[in-house]
Each structure stands twice: as C-alpha cells, then as structure tokens.
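hey team, just a heads up i'm posting the complex here instead of the shared drive bc the drive is being weird again. everything in one block, sequence lines first with there labels, then the predicted structure for the whole assembly after. its two chains so it's a bit long, scroll down
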Amino acid sequence: MSVDTAVDGDPGSCRRTAGRLHELHGELAEARAYLRGQAHLDPARFEGLSGDAYRGRCAAIGRTVDTAAESCRGLGRALSEYADGLDDVLAVMVGARDVARRELVLHGHTIPTPGGYATDRQRHVYRTVAASVAGARRKEARLRDDWLSAIARYAIGPVEDLCLPLLGLPPEPPGVVPGAVVSRPVAGAPRTSTVAGAVVSRLVAGAPRTSTTGITSTTVPDSVWVPWGGSHDA
Amino acid sequence: MTFIIDPEVLEQSSRDLIRHGLDVGEATRIPFPDTGATAGYSKDAIEQLTAHVETTAGSLREVGEATERVVAIARLTDGEVGKLFDLTLAGAFR
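-- predicted structure starts here --
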C-alpha cells in the first residue's frame, strides 16, 4: 500500500476566519459593555414603565450578545488551534515528500510501496516515512475531532441542524503495523442525522468520558451536543 | 401623574445603540474557513453564528430607533409625559 501525503484544508484560511471571529467578539464585547450600562440606566434619567421596559430590553439583548460573544471566542480559538495543528501536519507531509523525492519514488502526493528491486535502505526509509505520515494522520484526525467538538460546544442554534459526524478515528484493521500505511480522511464525510447519531453514542451523558474503542482516546468536552436532550437509552 | 426622561441622555443612548448595531452587523462578514473534510460543517456553524449575530444586531438597532421615537415624543411634551404616554412608550421596547 502506498502512502498518501495529501492534506485537505488551508491553515491561512482558518486563521483569516479566526481573526474575523476575534474582531466580531470585540464588537460584541463593546456592545455588551454598553448594554450593561443601559440595563442599569439611572431611573432619574428614564423613569416609569417605559424606562423599566427599556432597561429590561437592554438586559435581554445583552444576554444574547453574551452568548454570541462566547461562541465567537470559542470558535475563533478552536480554529486558530486547528490552523496551528494543520501547519504541523503539513510540515510532516512536506518532509515525507522531500525524503521520498531523494530516496524513494513520489507520484504527486503519493509515495508508492518500494517494489521487489528496492534496497534494504529504501525499505527502511519507506517504513520510517510511513510511520511519520501515520503519526501526522492521527494528529490530523485529532484536530478534526477537536474542531467538530468545538462546533458542537459553541453552536449557537440547534446543534442538530449541523448534523455533525462521528468523532474519532476508525480502528486499524488487526495485523496492520500501526501507522505503516495511512490514507487520508475522506473529504466531505456524509452529513446525515444517522451519522450524527453515531457521535452521540460517544458523547451522551453516562458514556465513558474517554473512549478507548478506537485508535485514539478522545476526551469528551464538558458541554457537548446531545440531540435528544440527554437520554442515553438508545 | 408624570414621569421624567432626560432627552439628552436618551438621544445619545439611541445613537450609541444604533452604532453598536451597525458595527456588530458589519463584523458578521466572516469568510468560511477551509478546514478540509469538515469544511461543510464549519460553513454551517459560521452561518448559524452570523445569522444569530445579525438578528442581535437588528435588535440593537431597533431599540435605538425606538428610543429615538421616545425622545421625539418626550421633546414635544417637554420631558414630562403622562401615564398614558408612559404605557404607550413602554410598548416600543417590547
């Protein structure tokens, strides 16, 4: 089996979005501070039922601003971390391709398995490169899971609408040397409620906080999406 | 029965609320990140967030505009408005 070193995603694009989320958070924080002042506007300045209604409305909007600001900050941070991690993964892949170019064979982003005429050194280099790519793939999968967890955690509307997919890596088939050959995650994983349900089995209350069923141990955040309201009878 | 409002203060509040609403609304133009396999989910999450923030920005502008109307009425009555007006004006903030 060959080693695929292609990586989907653009750290620069993620950072641009994270920067804009940070700016939006700043605007929301300013609005929040102003609303807090208006919610406590001196009754001597605005008296009566309408003054009370004004203060009440400002307080209510302030709460929705708070929620949005928290969401912006959380998603922005998570996206920055995702971008940093993706940079690391990309660096490993670039390194693997450089080595393959010098010592092995490289077809585009793919490093084919050494053939029958390969030297022992080439086989050794291939195993080393494959192991390093496998490590990067595990990191890529962790990054993806962390990002999806952040989406679930900071979603501001119904999380069900986002139809998030299964978290975690698929288990490696038995007998395979861990990390020897790794293919990249399938782009555009299905976005259906059925798939979304699978993630819930890992996230519902009462489920182990740390899953050890896959290759990775995925620590579940404190606040996660439970589409049917927390029941885990399924 | 009368109640007092300070038109100067509320006029400023009205302008500030509208300005905050516009600033927040302007900041919702967020590009979608290319997160690879999860790009679709990322786009949905950002869209959901910005839709919520746009609604919130609209609320800020609405309260600002309602305050503007209240101030305009209060100016006509020299800052002292009767109970009936008070009830009517309170509805502007609901």
